Amino acid sequence: MRHRITLIAACALLLTGCFAQSAEEPSGGRIKLAMLQPPRSGLTPFSDDAFKLSRWSTAETLVTLDADGNARPGLATGWRRISDHAWEFTVRPGVTFHDGTALTAAAVTNTLTRATAATPKPRILDGVELTAETAGDTVIVTTATPDPLVPQRLSSPQLAILAASAYRADGKVDPVGTGTGPFELVAVNGTTTATLDRYDGYWGEKAAAEGIDVSFVPDGTARAAAIRGGEAHIAEAVPVSQAALLDPATISEVPMPRTNTLYLNTEAGPFRDQALRAAAREAIDADEIVRSVYEGRADVAEGLLGPALPWAAAGRTPLTGRTEPADPNGTAITLATFSDRAELPEVASVLQQQLEDAGFTVTQVVREYAHIEEDALAGRFDAFILSRATVLDSGDPAAYLQSDFTCAGSFNIAQLCDGGVDAAVRTAAGTEAGDGRRAAILAAEAAVLRTDAAIPMLHERVIQGDATSVVGSAKDPRERTLITSATRLR
Length: 490
Prior knowledge:
This protein is α+β, with helices and mostly antiparallel strands. The chain is 24% helix and 23% strand. The protein has 13 helices and 19 strands. The protein has helices at 50-55, 105-117, 150-153, 220-228, 240-243, 274-283, 286-292, 310-315, 343-357, 373-377, 398-405, 419-430, 435-451; strands at residues 30-35, 63-65, 71-73, 76-81, 86-91, 130-135, 138-143, 183-189, 193-198, 211-216, 234-235, 251-264, 299-300, 332-338, 361-367, 383-389, 454-466, 470-471, 488-489. Strands 1, 8, 9, 10, 11, 12, 13, 14, 15, 16 and 17 form an 11-stranded mixed β-sheet that branches. The chain has a 4-stranded antiparallel β-sheet with strand order 4-5-7-6, covered by helices on one side. The protein has a two-stranded antiparallel sheet with strand order 2-3. The radius of gyration is 23 Å and the shape is globular.
């Protein structure tokens, strides 16, 4: 009978009650995992819950990404572009879904077609018109406009391929027993627990562990304590404030593609003046923020794109042509951020002091994200601190640059509308994947930085807790993988 994790309501207070058995006791090769967020959408892959299915290695995609964001084979063994608008993908033979049915081109077409009709549509398909049709053992994927990133798009966990039995008549998707990965999802207990068993019919390397017992523990202190007390083998997203309390041997830090940035309102208020934006840029001491708020567990930003993208630092050249700063001379500004990420209010306090030392007069506003996003996007603040993912679901930064910094960008908190920036981002978005595209992305980054509309301060890290008995857990900057076929207990 499977061992199951029971999460009690008082978990955050009674930490030893989070798990029914100590992780130091014999576990039969089952890995106990404490996760940050419970499912929000019933584990449908068309939502952000898809990343849970991916991190448990139960649902797989046609394409995977390497460390540089290059497309690699997954459930597709290969692909080719057959026209400006169309790509042909060859489906891997010999793969079975967890319900015993075979992976076929028709099954892939079914998943992709249902994804395009989902409400809401998967984020990776936002603004993309895509169709899929079966052609023998291949699938033809066609887009309304030429898209050089189709393979990378199909790497998104939101487009994981599930068996036909996963898709219900009411439009809901049930991933239990319908994936292709080395672990089969066999039970979900609402927002409390999930259970996965090794799938012995897996097409690739058989899982070393017997299974995964997942517990959803939103409280960061409780997750860290579960590692410290031996109630969990792996805990994701350990808070910075808790990391120092754990045995260093149980902590790993990986740079993640997330940048803590100060966005300045270029359309209204004092920061319409680029010389004042330059003054804000010069006032910021990112080293102090990393040292005092993040306890050294972050990286000072050299640009919008950080060390999680090694090619960015390697290809970046010194920035020239920057505006000289003006004297703030008491200029009054409103600095805002949100409280959902524990570090951001602390960053705001340090930043307020730095800006006041430089001559600004600062009023600070902090609210929950749900209550501040609308005002931020409407340009109602002079400055806004945001922790922002810089590679979205395709693993490519061009989408982030487009949404945050172009005239028509849907997440343009800086209200930036600059012809040079728009042209640079358009060039990057239209360039084929590879070195040329990466160079164009860095040129677009430089164009944004020259405007001083956004001042990157630091790049965050993934902090993960692993018991010393764990071998082979993934440390993934994109947070797509966590437990793989190779993950096991000593």
